[in-house]
Specification:
about 180 residues; alpha+beta; 7 strands; globular; about 45% strand; 2 helices
């Protein structure tokens, strides 16, 4: 019985180690995609010709908190899809800056080539002044959370962050004119 228990513990430890290794590999791949996306954005911003980006600004008054403004920028690629017979635009990176009362927030969403949200960085002014800014990083593979890092006072569930990224993708599709 003792040997069976020891063997079971050993197998669980090996399985956890393998899963941790797979998660690390996925995170490393996402970080490479992120660095590539940031380089592409920097390069496109240095060009004088038209860039593949779209910015939307939403401004409104909210009772109790005052003026709120959200600026969402979509960075995308455009290519000709022969199967469809038209040009297709796909976002690869989305940023959002917004405020709630005096608190300021900044979000980033990285989109893979299949159109899935694979990374979210959420940052904002914290209620806890000793922290400074809340920061969250979520890494997904096939809509499954593989890793998260948080330095925050507020609690944001990873499914909320994933849903926000998906909503941004849907907004992009609605705003692109055909």
């Amino acid at each position: 019985m003792r040997k069976a228990f020891t063997l079971l513990c050993l197998l669980l430890a090996i399985g956890a180690q393998a899963q941790t290794g797979a998660a690390k590999k996925t995170v490393d791949e996402i970080r490479e995609q992120y660095a590539s996306a940031k380089q592409r954005i920097e390069y496109n911003n240095s060009m004088e010709e038209a860039r593949n980006q779209m910015t939307a600004t939403i401004s409104h008054m909210v009772p109790g908190t005052g003026h709120q403004e959200k600026v969402v920028t979509f960075y995308f690629t455009t290519y000709f899809d022969e199967a469809v017979g038209e040009y297709i635009s796909k976002p690869y990176f989305i940023t959002a800056t917004y405020n709630v009362a005096a608190r300021k927030f900044y979000d980033e969403y990285l989109i893979d080539q299949k159109g899935n949200v694979v990374f979210a960085y959420l940052s904002g002014d914290s209620f806890d002044t000793s922290i400074g800014r809340d920061e969250r990083r979520f890494y997904w593979k096939n809509d499954r959370l593989v890793h998260k890092q948080e330095k925050c006072f507020d609690v944001v569930h990873e499914s909320v962050a994933l849903e926000q990224g998906k909503n941004m993708l849907q907004a992009f599709s609605l705003m692109m004119f055909r």
